[in-house]
Amino acid sequence: MALSREIIVSTALTIMDSYGLADVSMRRIATALEVQPSALYWHVDSKQDLLSAMTETILADLPPLLSADPVRLRLWAARFHTLLLRHRGGAELVASALAIRSWDDTPAASVEARLLAESVPPATAHAAAHGLMSLILGHAFAEEQRAQAKILRVDLPERPWDQAESLDGAVALIVAGIFESQ
Amino acid sequence: MALSREIIVSTALTIMDSYGLADVSMRRIATALEVQPSALYWHVDSKQDLLSAMTETILADLPPLLSADPVRLRLWAARFHTLLLRHRGGAELVASALAIRSWDDTPAASVEARLLAESVPPATAHAAAHGLMSLILGHAFAEEQRAQAKILRVDLPERPWDQAESLDGAVALIVAGIFESQ
DNA sequence: ACCTGAACACCGTTCAAGT
DNA sequence: ACCTGAACACCGTTCAAGT
Description:
homodimer; 182 residues; mainly alpha; 8 helices; 0% strand; DNA-binding
């Protein structure tokens, strides 16, 4: 009882943070809420619907990009990266949900808009915005998989470079490319 | 009978190409091979082991990067991208498997080596190689999710730009950044 | 050496029935 | 309106037992 969409979403996020995305199951959420699995389907259309709602909650903490200068672009990228790593399995969840969203409901769309406002050529603005998002999601996904594997097994080989530094380096290359290209 | 590791891997890849990564289950493979699910475990340690073997097979078709000039880098990136999209769910599979691999067993490592041979500064070479791989995997993953969603549902909104072109644009920005930075 | 059969502890989702 | 209970069609993995 006292069941609601919000409570289901926050319980799901709690399970995700504690045990990983693979352990977020309708049955586990139901058990945590002391309710039958089928009860969840009154408040939620499907598991996919729940995952979308979880993504919404996570992305709500993403600050907007204020200005499209190199410094702020790199800072925004770092923020996005940090946000994804704040929840266990956050990168996989957000990457899946953003992929099937309309372009305008995507963090990259706001980056693109800012670049266009700075009179960056449309093709460059789009490639950069889209590229930054794919890069950060791809990088965070890998980092996350490694973190998850570290918990489950032990045979995980270390990476030679600092992960956040590698990402920032790649972000910097794209950012440099935006302004140097014309 | 006539069961072997190779046959299990190729059957798994066939199921993946026909129905997607989510439908690649040990039980489905067993059914396809007219064998009990438990029989697979004589030839394969676990499902994770099988997924690694499948990744190996897919990546075997990735041509080496011959030279680290801008044109060939962009061409190699396009090849990698095409390779991932050739199998349904290929990007997700390869992204997961590469994440927990040692750096040297990664396509990015060979790109890094080529860049170093061209006397690109080590930090730049690593950021670029790592960035290109994450970018391509992240992009292909998203594209793949959209392709999969298109098959299952219909409410998928179209993306405003050509996907392959967007990726090439982002790749070009990184590539330009490598050589213009010093 | 290689496979069967049965079991264990799970999944997402539906749907009639209760309150 | 909101939840239970039971069912359906699935999972990965283990392990004794057969051949």
